[in-house]
TrEMBL record:
UniProt keyword list: DNA-binding
Single GO MF annotation: DNA-binding transcription factor activity
Gene Ontology CC terms: cytosol
Organism the protein comes from: Rhodospirillum rubrum (strain ATCC 11170 / ATH 1.1.1 / DSM 467 / LMG 4362 / NCIMB 8255 / S1)
PANTHER family: HTH-TYPE TRANSCRIPTIONAL REGULATOR, HTH-TYPE TRANSCRIPTIONAL REGULATOR PUUR
Name the record gives this protein: Transcriptional Regulator, XRE family with Cupin sensor domain
Every HTH cro/C1-type domain range: 9-63
One Pfam family, short name: HTH_3
Length: 188
C-alpha cells in the first residue's frame, strides 16, 4: 500500500491549524514547497521532509507511523519495523529506506535498518544534528563523508561519530548497501 505523503502532510498541517505559508515560515522553506508536497507533485528527500516536519514539530517516525507498538514490546519482527520513507522514494532510482525499531518517543535511542540502493545519496547538503550515531555495514558498500574526509566502508566495517559534524552517506556502487545503525538522541 502506498503512503500518501501529500495527504498526510495536509491533514497534519490542518489539524494544527497552520496555513501553508505559516508552516513554510516555521520550516524555513517556501510555501510553494509545501504546496507541491501536499499535491504529490514533489517527492521530498528524507532531509527535506524532516525540515518541513520540524515546523510542526513532528518526527519522521511520527509522520509515517500507522500504529504505535505496545509500550512493553521487546522483540520486533521484520514486518513490524516502521518505514520512515515513502513507497515512491523507495521505488525511485537512488532510493533510501530507513526502517525503525520501536517507537522513539518512548526511548532515547533510535535503531535503524537502512538500505541504500545504487546511486542513493542523503544529499549534497551535509547533514548535521545534535546526536551521536554509529552503524555497521551488513552488505554492500557505502561512502561516508564526515567533515571533508571520505571513507568507503564494506561488510563488517563500522562507524561512530558526533553527528554535529557535517556528514553524508552515498552509494556510488553497483549493489545495494545495508546498514544497521543507532542514533542518540533520535534524529529522524
Amino acid at each position: 500500500m502506498d503512503f500518501d505523503v501529500g495527504a498526510r502532510l495536509r491533514a497534519i498541517r490542518e489539524a494544527k491549524a497552520l496555513s501553508q505559508r505559516e508552516l513554510a515560515r516555521r520550516a524555513g522553506v517556501t510555501n510553494g514547497t509545501i504546496s507541491l508536497i501536499e499535491q504529490n507533485q514533489s517527492s521530498p528527500s528524507v532531509a527535506s521532509l524532516r525540515k518541513v516536519l520540524q515546523g510542526i514539530p513532528m518526527t519522521l517516525a511520527e509522520f509515517f507511523s500507522q500504529e504505535t507498538p505496545p509500550p512493553d514490546q521487546i522483540v520486533f519482527r521484520p514486518d513490524e519495523l516502521a518505514e520512515l520513507t515513502n513507497e515512491i522514494q523507495r521505488r525511485n532510482e537512488g532510493a533510501i529506506s530507513f526502517r525503525q525499531v520501536g517507537d522513539t518517543s518512548r526511548h532515547g535511542l533510535q535503531i535503524l535498518h537502512e538500505t541504500y540502493a545504487p546511486g542513493a545519496d542523503t544529499g549534497r547538503t551535509m547533514l548535521a544534528h545534535a546526536s551521536e550515531e554509529g552503524g555497521i555495514v551488513i552488505s554492500g558498500q557505502i561512502e561516508l563523508t564526515v567533515d571533508t574526509t571520505r571513507y568507503v566502508l564494506g561488510p563488517g566495517d563500522s562507524y561512530l561519530f558526533d553527528s554535529k559534524r557535517p556528514h553524508r552517506f552515498r552509494n556510488p556502487f553497483d549493489a545495494p548497501c545495508v546498514i544497521v545503525s543507532a542514533c542518540t538522541p533520535p534524529y529522524l
